[in-house]
Specification:
The chain contains ten helices and ten strands. The chain is an alpha/beta fold. The chain has one domain (2-230): P-loop containing nucleotide triphosphate hydrolases (Rossmann fold). Helix 3 (95-102) packs parallel to helix 6 and helix 6 (136-150) packs parallel to helix 7 (166-180). The structure holds adenosine-5'-triphosphate and magnesium ion.
């Protein structure tokens, strides 16, 4: 059974009809990549699941429950986490404090911190620095580290590899794999290679509609679909 299912989701932002029918399923334990060109509606899809831009039509079903219309707070409390596009961390708190307040279920904090510091050695080095003093890439690591601490059942991650140097992208891939050991992941990823390495399945969004989906392993050799929906890669 799918843990998360979107059925013909439609979303307006102001008077603009941004999502015009997005449907897909995310199986428990899988990593699904949401692909599509700039402006296709990938971020809006994540925000619609989270109730940040609530759908005006269709349904979002989570663990068998229709959560369409729920408040974002209740959706988050039900176990759906979010790492937004632009690194939501607390700039006035230290790295360690940022991790500590992300903890949802008490206990195992030290073990989780060890894992995060193992995955991202830079965070260990700068554990006592304020979040705002970190580089953009390090803030990205901290945002994903916070998601690792939080024990979500599903995690929505928007472009985790954006702007990262290749060596840091490798650390990020490893971190998301570790996360996915315990968490179902829906990932927006513009870096096709990263998407290929991480995802089990993909969904392509084009002009606010889901137009194509399948097994990630079948997409990499499918030049025509890649060219048609994603442009040259
Ligand atoms: N607050 C807003 N007001 C009006 N239009 C918006 C707003 N937010 C997003 N849009 C529009 O909705 C469409 C989808 O945006 P969205 O951010 O979901 O795209 P995306 O697929 O995440 O793109 P990118 O790859 O560039 O991040 C775009 O045309 C965008 O201009
Ligand atoms: Mg986006």
């Amino acid at each position: 059974m799918s843990l998360l299912r979107l059925e013909a989701v439609e979303t307006f932002i102001g008077q603009f009809h941004i999502l015009e029918g997005v449907s897909f399923e995310v199986a428990e334990g899988s990593i699904v990549a949401l692909l599509g060109r700039n402006g296709a509606g990938k971020t809006t899809t994540l925000k619609s699941i989270l109730g940040i831009t609530p759908p005006s039509g269709g349904r979002v079903v989570y663990d068998g429950t229709d959560i369409t219309g729920w408040r974002s707070y209740d959706i988050a409390s039900a176990g759906i986490g979010y790492v937004p596009e632009h690194r939501a961390i607390f700039t006035e708190l230290t790295v360690e404090e940022n991790l500590r307040i992300a903890e949802r279920n008490r206990g195992e904090f030290d073990a989780k911190c060890d894992l995060i510091f193992d995955l991202f050695p830079d965070l260990k080095r700068f554990a006592a620095l304020d979040g705002g003093q970190l580089s953009g890439g390090q803030q990205q690591m901290l945002a994903v580290g916070r998601a690792l601490v939080a024990d979500n059942r599903v995690l929505l991650i928007d472009e985790p590899s954006e702007g990262l140097a290749p060596v840091i992208i490798e650390q990020m891939i490893e971190a998301i794999r570790r996360l996915a050991d315990h968490t179902t992941v829906l990932l927006v990823e513009q870096n096709f290679v990263v998407a290929t390495l991480l995802a089990d399945r993909y969904v392509i969004i084009e002009e606010g509609s889901s137009v194509h989906s399948g097994a990630m392993a079948d997409l990499a050799p499918d030049d025509e679909t890649i060219r048609r929906y994603l442009g040259a890669v």
